[in-house]
Amino acid sequence: MLTPLVGKQDAYPTCRQAGCLPHLSKRTHDLAHWNPSGKLAVVTGASSGIGRCLAKRLTAAGCRVIAVARRADRLQSLSEEIHREGDDDLLLPIRGDVTDSATHDQIESLIRSRDGSLDLLVNNAGIGAIGSFEDATESRLRKIMEVNFFAPAQLTRRLLPYLKSSDDAVICNLGSVLGHRAVPDKSEYCASKFAMHGWSDALRAELAGTSVRVTLVSPSTTESEFFDVLVDSDANATSKSFGSWPADRVAAATLTAIGKRRSEVILSLGGKLLVYADRLCPPLMNWALRK
């Protein structure tokens, strides 16, 4: 049975309010069991949204973060923000595309230049699209699957030896409630998140008995730039939302899930209702979600 993670809205201050939690010192933080201090993490999609707030929270807790993103200017601004907090030596930026094997080479090389051990891998980078499957191009499906599933799967394969060399490592995959219940006009995105869900479950079982744990985080709609860069979609396209959280609140819940060694968490009340209603009465959800 999934363990829901519910927190009060005011328990997760926004990045603007708290500077992504400057009060989280290297000695006191919200990770009760998995302690990030002195550890090494890789976070993909770190230039904005959930990934950016994760990088800030981790460095604030004393974790060295290899931050991977395509946009050099955003990585630079992230470095400057962390520098202002006094943790500039903890961020190790890599500009690159997660679908590019050369980027994977850079990540692996940087891990090797340390002690060859990796404690946390957060597969966060992702893209989406809105529009009917019938009207979409083949390239849209391939691009979304490449970024959202094939790239993180291949990166994880590359980094597993380094994760296994850690005494307590975590692979955290950012999925979606749409990886539990698909909705119209997001067929490619739903497919990629269903793949992430199934792969995470299989990987968790395969790694049982090792030092590596797998956590799947399934948010609903996240307030970020995600919808500003939709693939081959109408600029005015909209879709149903099942509960919206700020990116930093998702990041906080993600770190709590990692710290508490959760296998999976579903975020937002709307997200939980969507998933559990579908499990209890699929025909009702089929009717409710039809166009």
Description of the structure:
- The protein has 291 residues and is an alpha/beta fold.
- It has a single domain, classed as Rossmann fold (3-Layer(aba) Sandwich), CATH 3.40.50.
- The chain is 42% helix and 14% strand.
- The protein contains nine helices and nine strands.
- It has helices at 15-18, 49-60, 72-84, 101-113, 138-164, 187-206, 247-259, 269-280, 282-289, and strands at 40-44, 64-69, 91-95, 120-123, 169-174, 212-218, 221-223, 244-246, 264-266.
- The strands form two sheets. Strands 3-2-1-4-5-6-9 form a seven-stranded parallel beta sheet, with helices on both faces. A two-stranded parallel ribbon has the order 7-8.
- Helix 2 links the parallel strand 1 and strand 2.
- Helix 2 crosses helix 7 (247-259), helix 4 (101-113) packs parallel to helix 5 and helix 5 runs parallel beside helix 6.
- The chain is globular, with a radius of gyration of 18 Å.
- It starts with 14 loop residues before the first helix and ends with a helix.
- The model is unreliable at 1-32 (pLDDT under 50).
